[in-house]
Design a protein that fits this description.
The protein has 10 helices and 15 strands. By secondary structure, it is α/β, with parallel strands linked by helices. The termini are far apart.
């Protein structure tokens, strides 16, 4: 990988994580961020080939670049991804694709026209317990799945304790923060597991005393033609943190818990579970995504998480917003 040179756009928390991971995988790395302090922090973590304050200077010399990793606030995703694709550079794009489905569709068109690969970073797809959960669902060990409950509840001020949460992009509506967009991991997983729902009913709100402009509480019901129902709760105020998925079928239940790092399967009326424990750490999912991006660059492998899937997530998000505004069940377009 020594000849691979990647530029990371956005040197915040996730940007620094990707810089370190790709560097550890043997790549040369550069960084772009409008904040000099973040570039300085990044340079203390990994040796940077180049540091840039804007997109134009970052792309001024693209002949020696192998790919682009986009970790900027959501507002800038589409503009930066299109600029990279039009220069013929493969893109790793942190989720979500955009703040809205229309701009995501624009990026999808450019990706189709250029035929340059774009890998979308819904990183829980590379988390071993989640992959095992999907494998067991695909094996239909639960029989017909009837009900799924998903929770992502984490207090925003705990995310980046080294900075004021009020200054974090998650607090800004303009930059694309908020529980619905940033915690759309769960929406992506449900679409990955079960496909797109036909209808949704939702409430998107700001309930807590957090000093933010964005939503901090989301409750959603997905409705499927099979009769299956999925309930999703997202919030930015919960303590202790909880990230879990419970799938209930006619033949038993599967329960994934991030905090306990385990997957449980139960079939009896009593609390008797077959437990699978995992030793993986959070960074492993990011390393898995990084390794796939390098295989895409090196071998032309088809990305496993596609721009079309990110567009589908945003289509569902727009239905969620319409439902919340109208107070009604709405169809997913």
């Amino acid at each position: 990988m020594k000849d691979k040179h990647l530029i990371v756009l956005g040197a915040g928390s996730v940007g620094k994580r990707h810089l370190l991971n790709f560097s550890n995988l043997g790549c040369l790395v550069s960084a772009m961020d409008p904040r000099p302090d973040r570039l300085s922090e990044a340079a203390h973590i990994v040796p940077l080939v180049g540091s840039f304050s804007d997109l134009e200077s970052a792309f001024s010399e693209t002949s020696n670049l192998s790919g682009v990793v986009i970790c900027s606030p959501t507002k800038f995703h589409v503009e930066q991804a299109i600029a990279a694709l039009e220069k013929g550079l493969p893109v790793f794009l942190e989720k979500p694709v955009s703040s809205d489905a229309q701009s995501a569709h624009q990026l999808m068109r450019v990706a189709h026209q250029t035929r340059i690969p774009l890998l979308l970073g819904y990183t829980y797809r590379w988390w071993p317990p989640i992959r095992e959960l999907k494998a067991r669902l695909d094996q239909k060990i639960l029989g017909k799945v009837l009900h799924v409950r998903c929770v992502m509840s984490t207090h925003l001020s705990d995310w980046h304790p080294w900075e004021r949460y009020q200054d974090f992009f998650m607090a800004s509506k303009d930059l694309g923060g908020g529980a619905l967009l940033d915690e759309s991991h769960v929406l992506d997983l449900m679409l990955w597991f079960f496909g797109i729902p036909t209808e949704v009913f939702a409430k998107v709100e700001r309930l807590s005393s957090l000093e933010i402009e964005t939503d901090d509480n989301v409750d959603v019901w997905f409705y499927y033609p099979t009769g299956m129902r999925i309930f999703i709760h997202l919030d930015l105020y919960g303590r202790p943190h909880e990230r879990s998925i419970t799938a209930v079928g006619e033949n038993g239940s599967l329960v994934w818990s991030y905090e306990h790092n385990r997957l449980n399967f139960g079939q009896s009326a009593d609390q008797e579970w077959v437990e699978t424990r995992y030793s993986c750490e959070r960074n492993d999912m990011f390393v898995g995504a990084a390794e796939e991006f390098l295989r895409i660059i090196n071998t032309g492998q088809e990305p496993s998480c596609l721009i079309e899937e990110g567009y589908a997530v945003l289509s569902v998000i727009e239905a969620i917003r319409r439902s919340s505004e109208s107070g009604q069940v709405v169809s997913v377009k």
